[in-house]
Amino acid sequence: APGPIILIGDSFHNLIDGIIIASSFLINFAMGIAVSLSVIAHEVPQEVGDFGILLDQNYSKKKALFYNTLSGSSTIPAAIVSYFILDITKAAIPYILAFSAASFIYIALSDLYPELQHRNIELKHTLRQFLLMMAGIGTMILVFQVHI
To answer: Which residues cross the membrane (predicted)?
Structure first.
C-alpha cells in the first residue's frame, strides 16, 4: 500500500531536511535562513502531494492530515539534535551540504531534463523551462552573494 510507504519515506526525507538546516546554521545565520526558506519552499508542494496520495488511498481528510503532519514533524527534532552533534563534528558539515546540494540538483534535473528531450515540444516551452532553471540558479547565486 502506497500510504505507509509515503509516510515512512516522508519522515526520513524530513529528518534529512532537519540535518541540512542544522548544518547550514552552523556555517552562518544567513545561510541557515536561506536553506530553511528553500526547504519550506520545496516542502509545501511535496506535503500537498503526499496529502493527495493519502486521500487517494482512502484515508479520511482528518486521518491524512494527522499522518502527514506526524511524518513532517521529524524535521525540527532532527535539526535540534543535529545542530549539537554537528557542532562537535564540524568537519562533516561541508560534506553534508555538498551532498544535499547535489541531491537537489539531481532531483531537479532528473525531473526537468526528460521534459526538455521530448521531440514534439514547442521551442517556446523548452526555452521557458531553460529560463526557469537559470532563474533558479541565478537566485541561489544572488542569495549567497548578498548574505555570505
So the answer is: 19-44, 65-86, 92-109, 130-147
**18 vs 51: CA distance, rounded Å:** 21
Query: What is the Cα 129 distance to its own chain's centre?
Result: 20
Amino acid at 42: H
Question: Which of these, 89, 87, 75, 88, lies nearest to 20 by C-alpha position?
Answer: 75
Contact call for residues 147 and 31 (beta carbons, < 8 A): yes
For residue 90, the Cα-to-chain-centroid distance in whole angstroms is: 22
| 8 contacts 67 by C-beta, under 8 angstroms | no
Among 32, 41, 10, 8, CA closest to 80: 32
Three-state SS sequence of 51-117: HHHHHHCCCCHHHHHHHHHHHHCCHHHHHHHHHHHHHHCHHHHHHHHHHHHHHHHHHHHHHHHHHHH
pLDDT in tens, 27-40: 989 889 988 988 89
Residue pair 3/57 in contact by the 8 Å Cβ criterion: yes
